[in-house]
Amino acid sequence: MKRKSSTITVGDIATRVGLSRQTVSYILNEKGHLFRPETRRLVIEAAEDLGYRPNAVAKALRSGKFNGIGLVSSAGLDSGTVTSEKIFGIHEVLQVHDFHLVSARYSDEFLVSRVFIPKMLRELMVDGLIVNYTHRVPPELVQQVENSPLPTIWLNVKQPYDCVRPDDFQGGALATSHLLKLGHQDIAFVDVFRTEEEILSRDTSFHYSVRDRWKGYEAAMRGAGQRPRLFSRNPRLSPSESKAGPFDWLEGPRQPTALLFSSEGGLMPALMQMAYQGRRIPQDISVMCFQDGERTVGGGYAVDYVLVPHRLLGATAAELLIKKIQQNEKQKDPVAIIPCKLCAAGYSVGPPPAKAFVTQRKRGAKA
Predict the structure, then answer these.
(1) pLDDT of residue 299
(2) Residue ranges of domains in the chain, CATH in brackets
(3) Fewer CB near the terminus (10 Å): N or C of the chain?
(4) pLDDT for res 362
(5) Between the CA of residue 256 and those of 27, 231, 304, 345, 358, what are the distances in Å?
(6) Residue 88: exposed, middle, or buried by beta-carbon count in 10 A (0-12, 13-18, 19+)?
């Protein structure tokens, strides 16, 4: 008859099977490979029959490990967003290694304070950190991580080591090369949130991915002997106003035959504006964008895209961090750069039209 699990100890199991406490402890604490299969089976069956449950706190105190990883992000919406795909990827790896995830969002003031790392160790009881602080990283936070005893991996940010990020330059070049191979020559890069000056300068107030995607697009265009075109936010408009459309660059003469959006931002209003104009996709114009997951955009539109592999980013960060924890050392590891993937099934991308689409500027249009 099973006893209550809270009263069962290693000594009880040892008495039941006639083995030493040390032998039973080894088998129950992942050192069973040191013993014969029949001995391991005897101990495990006795533990199950008695209803034994290991004391996680006691185990952590003995080993100095909690089997926990902290996912830390900034409370700032623009620099601390954690996509669901990243979290799915992290969880998939943690389940394999029997680790758990502790997620925490803190203000920048707290992240750069001296109590941040001690809190992670004392209260949240984690063995390592994944830091999802994507741009404008405070130097004080970098120093905190450098000086802490916790192994750390930075996620989706440019750091010289111990970080995992996508190859956005490769993604921009990949999409543009695909359009060029289909015969397009007049391809425009679209970003409705940033102005042309911001994208072409060294402004670090926004995530590096936008500029890297533009540079990848630009390199592919110039490599093919074509002139790059940038459709960006009108400085007179706020990002939210610009995102809503309508867009000046979809009106008037010399329309491109293909558009590459830096993200899903502004894509739906642009598709609706083109539908109002009578443009067919992809017969009259091809459209592509960047996405962090495999899905259709809002409204049910099926759009060809470049997949920024957020799930793989999360999984890779977790794998690298667990390796650091298991090796019990805090050496600096090289940056892991994950390539983007082209997802082009011909939904919104095709050969250029035989005749360029011409539309007249409509009243009320804005950039």
Answers:
(1) 58
(2) 5-54 (1.10.260.40), 68-166+310-337 (3.40.50.2300), 167-307 (3.40.50.2300)
(3) N
(4) 47
(5) 68, 11, 17, 21, 10
(6) middle
Place of tokens 């590459």: 260
90: helix, strand or coil: helix
CA-CA-CA-CA torsion sign (58, 62, 64, 65): negative
**Amino acid, single-letter form, for residue 145:** V
Convert the pLDDT of each residue in 276-329 to its tens digit.
Answer: 999 999 999 999 999 987 766 655 678 999 999 999 999 999 999 999 998 877
Distance separating alpha carbons of residues 320 and 346, to the nearest angstrom: 36
* The two three-digit tokens of residue 297, written as one number: 């955009």
Q: Where are the beta strands (DSSP E) in the chain?
A: 68-74, 100-106, 128-132, 152-155, 163-167, 187-191, 229-232, 258-261, 286-291, 304-307, 336-339, 341-343
Distance from C-alpha of 126 to C-alpha of 147, rounded to nearest angstrom: 16
SS3 content of the chain, % helix, strand, coil (to 5): 40, 15, 40
Task: List Cβ<8 Å contacts ≥24 apart for 18-22.
Answer: 19/43
Tokens coding 65: 């490990």
Token pair in block for residue 350: 């095709």
Q: Regarding beta strands 304-307 and 341-343, do their DSSP bridges make them parallel or antiparallel, or are they unpaired?
A: antiparallel
At residue 309, φ and ψ (nearest 5 deg) are: -75, 75
